[in-house]
Design a protein that fits this description.
Layout: E1 3-5, E2 12-14, E3 16-19, H1 36-49, E4 53-55, H2 64-73, E5 82-87, H3 103-117, E6 122-127, H4 136-148, E7 152-158, H5 162-175, E8 180-186, H6 198-205, E9 208-212, H7 236-241, H8 255-258, H9 262-278, H10 282-291, E10 299-301, H11 306-313, H12 323-332, H13 336-339
Parallel strand pairs: 3-4, 3-10, 4-5, 5-6, 6-7, 7-8, 8-9
Antiparallel strand pairs: 1-2
Helix pairs in contact: 1-11, 2-3, 4-5, 5-6, 9-10, 9-12
């Protein structure tokens, strides 16, 4: 694998980060969730590839993702792993104050995450989204306290817009506290909105972008075809397509938003053309495009099995997209900014 610095830190991480939202089977009916055994197999294979960066969140599978990682982490050399998690959302059965980015919730949440992960520190602690109910000054001072006492090494944000990230940058400078090092954001050939503002803030301040959903919930994997409604077993998009009362979301688009979107199908045609020329999979080309963006520090990939993981990991090193291939995909997907998915 190839490695790069994590934003404005001196820490190097693999350019593919293992996302673990699929770990744990708490969401009844949602396909593709991994039990403990399969999750540990995926973690082991990721490490065999040379990966060292693992991302989770307290809310993933209602804490089960962190718990599964914690069981596995006991058998690993902790200092070789860069471990990231997040705070914001409530877990099932929690009270009205067990959510958000207040000092009260953050300090309680970090203790529970450390317990589930069976470690005494988090390498990267991220706010999962913006909280209008808590002063951002209180949130940032609380995160800085966690850094000062050694429970957190670095901090980051996720799912915030440009002005929110700029406010975070300005406040950390004014207060003289530890700056945020990363921005975890939805980013792919099918979702490029943050290039307008948020990523400009990142470039000016040494903040690394960590794209989530690099394949847009499987849209950019190449397995979906024009005018062919997917079967339920084909993946989450297929599962959503077959459910009468289930709506899609940003990480798992509805088939109704895809089937008539010619800009998306044209993008997939180009990806397939490049993939054949390169001898790579469509998914690898889509992920490689992200890796070669100068603002990206590491791309967060998810896997439901070892085959998916192995294919995604093949995007990490040993080859590049040409300048013309990068440019052609860049121009082609500009249309998607207007058409949406």
């Amino acid at each position: 694998m190839d490695y790069d610095f994590l934003g404005n830190t001196g820490v190097k991480v693999s350019n593919l980060c293992l996302g673990t939202m699929t770990f744990g089977q708490a969401k009844v009916g949602l396909p593709g969730q991994c039990d403990d055994e399969l999750s540990h197999e995926i973690l082991n294979r990721y490490m065999e590839w040379g990966g060292n960066f693992i991302d989770t969140a307290d809310v993933y599978s209602q804490g089960l993702s962190e718990t599964i990682i914690g069981k596995w982490l006991k058998s690993q050399e902790r200092n070789k792993i860069i471990l990231a998690t997040k705070v914001f959302a409530p877990l099932a059965g929690s009270d009205m104050n067990s959510r958000g980015l207040s000092r009260r919730h953050i300090t309680a949440s970090i203790e529970k995450s450390l317990e589930r992960l069976q470690t005494n520190y988090i390498d990267l602690y991220q706010i999962h989204c913006w909280d209008n109910g808590s002063p951002i000054r209180e949130t940032l001072l609380t995160l800085n306290d966690l850094v000062r006492c050694g429970k957190v090494r670095y901090t980051g944000a996720s799912n915030v817009c440009g002005w929110q990230l700029q406010k975070i940058v300005d406040l950390t400078e004014q207060l003289g506290i530890s700056p945020m090092s990363t921005l975890q954001q939805q980013y792919s050939l099918a979702s490029r909105y943050d290039e307008f503002e948020a990523f400009c803030v990142c470039k000016l301040n040494g903040i690394a972008v960590l794209p989530w959903s690099p394949l847009k919930g499987g849209v950019l994997s190449g397995k979906y075809k024009r005018n062919q409604k997917p079967e339920e077993v084909s993946g989450r998009i297929g599962w959503v397509a077959q459910q009468e009362n289930t709506r899609g979301n940003q990480a798992c688009p509805a088939w109704t938003k895809l089937e008539g979107n010619e800009s998306m199908w044209n993008t997939l045609d180009k990806l397939e053309e490049i993939s054949k020329a390169k001898g790579k999979s469509v998914a690898q080309v889509a992920i490689r495009w992200l890796i070669q963006r100068d603002v990206v520090g590491s791309v967060i990939i998810g896997a439901r099995n070892l085959k998916q993981l192995d294919d995604n990991m093949g995007a990490s090193s040993g080859w590049n997209l040409s300048a013309e291939e990068v440019r052609s995909l860049y121009l082609l997907t500009l249309r998607l900014l207007f058409d949406g998915v």
